[in-house]
């Protein structure tokens, strides 16, 4: 593949991550890039992998979501080459993020994962965060992996109700 478009796509991903102060999932970045038809899914995956391997972005995978953060090295690299992204593309990205910021922030701030404990049970970890601050962290031990997956999925769907219930009961 020609390196010039690949370099532009990398800069676009760095630019997107630089415009927000919270991690974005690969799906959220994909939604933006694919909706604007900057590139295709396979090329985007290649770009994200190369950015991760070179240390320009950091990927943190929990359950079925990968959250991406811009590293200091990525921010520095972007500062040198940001002008290679057209003004029109930068404006489209800013407009998209402004329009979808709350939804994207909420989606990124709710995390869940599970793992097998030493006694053979499973522990589900459920987190609600805002930026770098953990608002709520819950750990539930359950007997089966299927139940752990269900707990994580339900947290994604019902976290606001659960958070509201807890705060109402505890405050």
Quick structural summary:
This protein has 171 residues and is an alpha+beta fold.
Topology:
Blueprint: H1 3-18, E1 24-25, H2 26-35, H3 41-53, E2 57-62, E3 65-70, H4 72-81, H5 87-109, E4 110-116, E5 122-130, E6 133-142, H6 145-170
Antiparallel strand pairs: 1-3, 2-3, 4-5, 5-6
Write down the overall mean pLDDT.
90
Q: Assess the beta-strand content as a share of residues.
A: 15-25%
What is the CA-based Rg, rounded? 18 Å
Q: Could you give the distance between the termini? A: 58 Å
Count, helices: 6
Tell me the total number of β-strands: 6
Instruction: Report the major sheet.
Output: 3 strands, antiparallel
Regions with little confidence, pLDDT below 50 for 5+ residues? none
CA-based shape: elongated
Q: Helicity range of the residues?
A: 55-70%
From N to C, what is the helix and strand string? HEHHEEHHEEEH
Instruction: Please give the order of strands in the largest beta sheet.
Output: 1-3-2
Q: Decide which structural class fits the backbone.
A: alpha+beta
Task: Output the keywords.
23% strand; 6 helices; 171 residues; elongated; three-stranded antiparallel sheet; alpha+beta
Task: Describe the 3D structure.
The mean pLDDT is 90. Helix content is 57%, strand content 23%. The strands form 2 sheets. Strands 1-3-2 form a 3-stranded antiparallel β-sheet. A 3-stranded antiparallel β-sheet has the order 4-5-6. The longest helix is centred in the last third of the chain and has 26 residues, at 145-170. It contains 6 helices and 6 strands; from the N terminus they run αβααββααβββα. It starts with a helix and ends with a helix. The protein is elongated. It is of the alpha+beta class and 171 residues long. It has helices at residues 3-18, 26-35, 41-53, 72-81, 87-109, 145-170; strands spanning 24-25, 57-62, 65-70, 110-116, 122-130, 133-142.
């Amino acid at each position: 593949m020609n390196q010039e478009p690949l370099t532009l796509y990398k800069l676009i991903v760095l630019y997107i991550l630089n415009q927000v102060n919270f991690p974005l999932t690969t799906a959220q970045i994909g939604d933006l890039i694919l909706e604007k038809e900057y590139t295709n899914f396979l090329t985007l995956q290649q770009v994200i992998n190369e950015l991760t391997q070179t240390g320009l972005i950091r990927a943190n995978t929990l359950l079925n979501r990968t959250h991406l953060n811009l590293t200091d090295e990525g921010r520095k690299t972007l500062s040198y080459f940001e002008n290679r992204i057209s003004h029109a593309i930068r404006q489209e990205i800013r407009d998209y993020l402004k329009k979808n910021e709350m939804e994207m922030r909420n989606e990124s701030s709710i995390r869940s994962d599970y793992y097998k404990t030493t006694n053979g049970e499973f522990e589900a970890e459920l987190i609600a965060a805002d930026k770098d601050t953990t608002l709520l962290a819950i750990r539930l031990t359950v007997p089966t992996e299927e139940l752990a997956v269900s707990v994580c999925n339900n947290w994604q769907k019902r976290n606001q109700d659960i958070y509201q219930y807890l705060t109402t009961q505890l405050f």
